[in-house]
Amino acid sequence: MARITLENLAHSYLPNPQGEEDFALKELNHDWIDGEAYALLGASGCGKSTLLNIISGLLEPSQGRILFDGQDVTHAPTAERNIAQVFQFPVVYDTMTVRENLAFPLKNRGEDASYVARRVQEIARMIGMEDVLDRRARGLTADAKQKISLGRGMVREDVNALLFDEPLTVIDPHMKWELRTQLKSLHHEFGHTMIYVTHDQTEALTFADKVVVMYDGRVVQIGTPEELFERPAHTFVGYFIGSPGMNVLPATVTGHRATLAGHEVALGRDFGRPEGNVALGVRPEYLRLGAEGLPVTVKRVEDVGRHKIVRAELFGQEISVIAAEDEEIGADQTRVSFDPARINVYANDWRVTPQGQGGA
Amino acid sequence: MEKTVNQKAWFLVLPVLILVAFSAVIPLMTVVNYSVQDTFGNNQFFWAGLEWFDEMLHSERMWDALGRQLLFSGIILAIEIPLGVFVALNMPKSGFWSSLCLVLMSLPLLIPWNVVGTIWQIFGRVDIGLLGHTLDALGIDYNYTQDTLAAWVTIVVMDVWHWTSLVALLAFAGLKSIPDAFYQAAKIDQASRWKVFRYIELPKMMGVLMIAILLRFMDSFMIYTEPFVVTGGGPGNATTLLSIDLVKMALGQFDLGPAAAFSIMYFLVILLISWVFYTVMTTIDRREG
């Protein structure tokens, strides 16, 4: 187990990267604290897997250093880093039995037979495959194969970190919950540093202590699920996390007040005078339809069971509002009001910190 | 629902039936016809029953040719399959050099058999051939027209030169289909190079290799043109493979009856070996599944 430090790390797949846009992974400094469970969240192609492969040593970064417990491993091969990684699609050794598959990483390290046997049995119990240990891996279903991959990742006890690259993509939904819960309990039990790559926010928020949100090759926010929800540091985080995502409304902001297409909106805090493209970010949960506020036109209502999602138009812009399941959406609800304490202000897509509130 | 009956549909199948009849059924039946009759010329035929089959089964000449044929196929399979896999493993996986390798390796496959034979016939000549002359100059006694071993080495090397590419290309296709994640996982699991080959590459190549072995076996078992052009079956009968012997018997000696019986048995042997081979391979495949 180790603390993993990334120093000025960046990667480009081009031989001679010129500008910043040539980098698949933009410069990054970060400490992965020993024993924490992280989720790396972002849309496809935002550099999540690149970052993961650099940590595991499958890829050498174009610049910067990686340290494991202060020791430089930037150029060390995967084998020396002592890392386990599980990939998106199941990787099993077809001709081996399930047992041999699970034992493979241990045997390659020359562990003694009785330890291997015991450990394989433990892992098999954990992934629920004890009764198929002697079957060949080839004939198994995709999710059984992926369970073997997970098992092979977890079979070594002394790994520095466990990396997961969207490991549950091919698994049935009900199995997903079960395996994720198992991964979490495994984390509590052994305290490995875990990094879990996913584009599924539910997966990220339920699995991790800290979620690292990536956008366009850049880490835009690192925080607890609650921080990501209440105070998205970037409009992308607001939009990506939450269902539906945060409403972003262009406005001008002066101190405690914002002006939205000529209408004034009270902000709970003083935001100074932000420059550039200024916008208000309000989660649909904190909007309320009713008789007061700004004029809106309701377009349609989606009833998702536990609440209603109202799609409406505010000064020509689409917004989403979450209304309670029992709330009647009627013709008289032509106005929307904001919860002032929950409004975030963004300048050029980055969050503006309210004055007198420090980093919170 | 009422089905419409339209017997005219048979006309759609007719072209295929005619084609197959002329290309396969009628020639084969002609051979069967010859194999049970005897002729003294003059287009007069007499019923001979299974006499020719009996004679051929007891003919030392045919057994010798079969022995040589099996030896030849065995040797070239034993060389071409591992060599092809080895070449495929060491080819550049992508980019310009990969394409160049593929083009260069396809070249021998595009050369007509007759020309392949001629190339090697001249290449190996001691007086004007590059290979033959060089070996001679190095003091190695090499003369494929007189020495049995030299003749065999020449036709085996020629076949390896001609067909290893096919195995390599098939194996390469098999290798290319392995997702990167497998190699990455192997690195994570600290598998040695040998284990990567044994547990990832070989199992993934098994399907195409099976086809390669089958193709190379059938082709080499029927080989005629190349060795015939190079050695003409000699020295003596040393490189007279089954098909060369068959042609000698049928066209050289005009022994139509025995040759017909011979070719039917030849056909059955190929069919039998291919079937056995295929069955064994698919059984292994299923058992592993």
Topology, pairings included?
The complex is a heterodimer of chains A (360) and B (289).
Chain A: E1 4-11, E2 25-32, E3 37-41, H1 48-56, E4 63-68, E5 71-72, H2 78-81, E6 83-86, H3 98-108, H4 113-126, H5 142-154, E7 161-165, H6 173-190, E8 193-198, H7 201-207, E9 210-215, E10 218-223, H8 225-230, H9 235-240, E11 247-250, E12 252-254, E13 257-260, E14 263-266, E15 278-282, E16 287-290, E17 294-295, E18 297-303, E19 307-314, E20 317-324, E21 335-338, E22 344-347, E23 350-352
Parallel strand pairs in A: 3-8, 3-9, 6-7, 7-8
Antiparallel strand pairs in A: 1-2, 1-4, 4-5, 9-10, 11-15, 12-13, 13-14, 15-22, 16-21, 17-21, 18-19, 19-20, 22-23
Helix pairs in contact in A: 3-4, 3-5
Chain B: H1 10-35, E1 37-39, E2 45-47, H2 51-57, H3 60-90, H4 96-110, H5 113-123, H6 130-137, H7 148-176, H8 180-188, H9 193-221, H10 225-231, H11 242-252, H12 256-288
Antiparallel strand pairs in B: 1-2
GO molecular function (chain A): ABC-type ferric iron transporter activity; ATP binding; ATP hydrolysis activity
Organism (chain A): Palleronia caenipelagi
Domain ABC transporter (chain A): 4-241
How would you describe this structure in keywords?
heterodimer, A: 360 residues, alpha+beta, Rossmann fold, OB fold (Dihydrolipoamide Acetyltransferase, E2P), six-stranded mixed sheet, four-stranded antiparallel sheet, 23 strands, globular, B: 289 residues, mainly alpha, MetI-like fold, two-stranded antiparallel sheet
3D structure, described in words:
- The complex is a heterodimer of chains A (360) and B (289).
- Chain A has two domains: 4-230, P-loop containing nucleotide triphosphate hydrolases (Rossmann fold, 3-Layer(aba) Sandwich); 243-351, Beta Barrel (OB fold (Dihydrolipoamide Acetyltransferase, E2P)).
- Helices cover 24% and strands 32% of the residues of chain A.
- Chain A is built from nine helices and 23 strands.
- Chain A has a six-stranded mixed β-sheet with strand order 6-7-8-3-9-10, with helices on both faces.
- In chain A, helix 6 (173-190) links the parallel strand 7 (161-165) and strand 8 (193-198).
- Chain B has twelve helices and two strands, in the order αββααααααααααα.
- Chain B has a single domain, classed as MetI-like (MetI-like fold), CATH 1.10.3720.10.
- Chain B is mainly α and 289 residues long.
- The chains are: A alpha+beta (360), B mainly alpha (289).
- At the A-B interface, strand 6, helix 3 and helix 5 of A face helix 8 and helix 9 of B.
- Chain A: This is ABC transporter ATP-binding protein.
- Chain A: InterPro entries: AAA+_ATPase (IPR003593), ABC_transporter-like_ATP-bd (IPR003439), ABC_transpr_FbpC (IPR015853), ABC_transpr_MalK/UgpC-like (IPR047641), Mo/tungstate-bd_C_term_dom (IPR008995), NA-bd_OB-fold (IPR012340), OB_MalK-like (IPR040582), P-loop_NTPase (IPR027417).
